Amino acid sequence: MDYEVEIISPEKKDTLIDEKYKQSISYGRKANIEGSCIKLLTNIEGFQNMWTDNFKSMSEDIRPHGRVFALSTDDDEKGVLYEPISKTCFLLNYEYYGYVKSLALAVAGDFLEEYHSIHSRYSVHGAAIDYKGRGTAIIAPSGTGKTTHSYGLLLNEGVRLVADDWFYTRITDSEVEAKASEKNNYIRVDVASSWSEYEGLLKGITLDERGRAVVNVRRVLGEAAMKEYTTLSNVVLLKRDPDDDEIFKKIGKEEALDYILKNEFCNPHQLVKDKRKTKLRKKFFQELFERTNLFMINTVASIDENQDHLREIVLEKTCF
Q1: pTM here?
Q2: Among 149, 197, 217, 308, which has the highest number of CB atoms less than 10 A from its own CB?
Q3: Known SUPFAM superfamilies for this protein (predicted)?
Q4: 143: domain CATH number?
Q5: What does the pLDDT average to over 159-173?
Q6: How confident is the model at residue 51 (pLDDT cuts 50, 70, 90)?
Q7: Is the CB of residue 66 less than 8 Å from the CB of residue 116?
Q8: Is the separation of the CB atoms in 237 and 244 below 8 Å?
Q9: Same domain, yes or no, for 42 and 141?
Q10: What is the arithmetic mean of pLDDT over 23-37?
Q11: For the segment 55-66, what is each residue's pLDDT rounded down to a tens digit?
């Protein structure tokens, strides 16, 4: 990630929109992200097209709960600005759609976690897999293999993908619900280098400058490959530590919480990181870990060995 977030005042936000950027906006699209309305405003046609493929649409009659201004400007000064009261984010002079997607999900997460009621939702930067109604979350820092392993698991009969990168949760008295954040997935072309079954997925698709595209996984694996939600039973944390010889283990909630805190909730796209927000997120993960079976996998092992351990958990074959 090559940006830092600057928190700005409502007054600066209004000035930027009214006096600097309003006239340059060419496209506007609203997305339904876990019931919240997040609006994209941009002058980059490619962003609009990928957003439309990526997210469920929201009625134009619904007032936005948050906005993402993704703009190319004359001054070429890169930056990410965020005004948290109105949930307005500015992404300036970045060509990478992945930041547009992630910031939209972060804006929705910032909005949703403020509701302390039965409507409370918390966002998780991780993958969610379903097998016969029982869900497994894979949470990890970027670069440790959560997305690659998610697509490997999908090749097993009965396994379905809820989310490959980001999902939203609701904790009730008895369970943890995990719901999809996107309609279609934004994936790397190199997924086929690990799993040849996906070679046909990106044929005829225009890739962005980082070798990614929004694609419909159902094209390769069928409609049953995707599921809207699941009930989480397991959480798998991934790490990549060559100094640790232990590849696979069951862990307790204190170890899991320590890991998630040390790695900033495994989410590089947190827009607000103050004491109050940290307390909210810590409380959520404490409750999540109290209600699920917890595992740690060190991905320094081969991809096949890691997949074997993940299948033990997801397909409920583990001896723990």
Answers
A1: 0.93
A2: 149
A3: PEP carboxykinase-like
A4: 3.40.50.300
A5: 92
A6: very high
A7: no
A8: no
A9: no
A10: 95
A11: 999 998 999 999
Q: What is the CATH number of the domain that holds 99?
A: 3.40.449.10
Tell me, what's the pLDDT at 319? 55
Specify the higher pLDDT residue, 2 or 287.
Answer: 287
Q: How many CB atoms lie within 10 A of CB 127?
A: 27
Q: Are residues 271 and 179 in the same domain?
A: yes
Per residue in 231-243, pLDDT (tens digit) is 999 999 999 999 9
Listed residues 60, 85, 112: the one ending a domain: 112
Q: Which residue range forms the structural domain that includes residue 76?
A: 5-112
Q: How many domains does the chain have?
A: 2
Give dist(CA 62, CA 31) in Å, integer.
10
Is pLDDT of 111 > 90?
A: yes
Which has the closest alpha carbon to 270: 78, 143, 170, 122?
Answer: 122
Token pair belonging to 246: 């232990």
Tokens linked to 50? 């990928």
Residue 200 is assigned to a structural domain of this protein: no
Structure tokens, 15: 């000035």
- One domain, residues 27 and 154: no
Q: Angle 275-290/253-262 helices, nearest 10 degrees?
A: 150
- State how far the Cα of 298 lies from the Cα of 164, in Å rounded to an integer: 19
Looking at the fold, whether 48 and 144 belong to one and the same domain comes out as: no
Q: b/e per residue, 63-90, with b = 16+ CB within 10 A? A: ebbbbbbbbeeeeeeeebbbbbeebbbb
One DSSP character per residue, 174-218 reads S-EEEEE--SSEEEETTHHHH-GGGTTTTTTPPP-TTSEEEE-TH
Taking residues 71-96, what's their average pLDDT?
Answer: 95
Confidence class of residue 160 from pLDDT cuts 50, 70 and 90? Answer: very high
Average pLDDT for the chain: 92
The last residue of a domain, from among 72, 89, 112:
112
